[in-house]
Amino acid sequence: CATCDGFLYRDKPVVVIGGGDTAMEDALVLARTSSLVTILHRRDTFRASHILAQRVLEHPNIKVRWNTSVVGFEGTNTTDGEPILSHVLARDQNTNKIEQIQVDAAFVAIGHDPNTKYMKGTDLDMDTGGYLLTQPDTSKTSVPGIFAAGDVADRVYRQAITSAGSGAMAALDAERWLSESGVTFDIKLEVS
Hints:
elongated; 24% helix; 4-stranded parallel β-sheet; 3-stranded antiparallel β-sheet; alpha/beta; single chain
């Protein structure tokens, strides 16, 4: 994510793939430190809010490539065999021409789908985007004994650190629910 990893690409060229609010936010964050931010967007207009799109279009450190889709990523390997990105292959949808864009990082910001599709049709309340709804200030869902944490319930931050925090909340809520429900466990350990 641009907020977490952008500083790793200080004074280096990067691309952001997408055209919504997340892509605009990422591009603006990266433009503070990267040498150049290129936005690759498959359409000829952004889907982002007007104010974010305007800020991006006016930023001197951000270049927009309209009607462009990514067809591949190229790079090399470190001496340890780890991949290093060096180029993004981008297709101009008007000419069908493929171009190599030299970059040190690519940030994909083309939307988020919470992994909740398998829960559709259950008694769990979800919003229109598929995120599980929780009771205020808890991780409790609409089904007693089921708690939601991380990216399935967080449509705003979607960060590992906030997921870890909400996971800790869910563990505490679950422990409290087990105690209040009178659920006990009889566990025997054998040590050899």
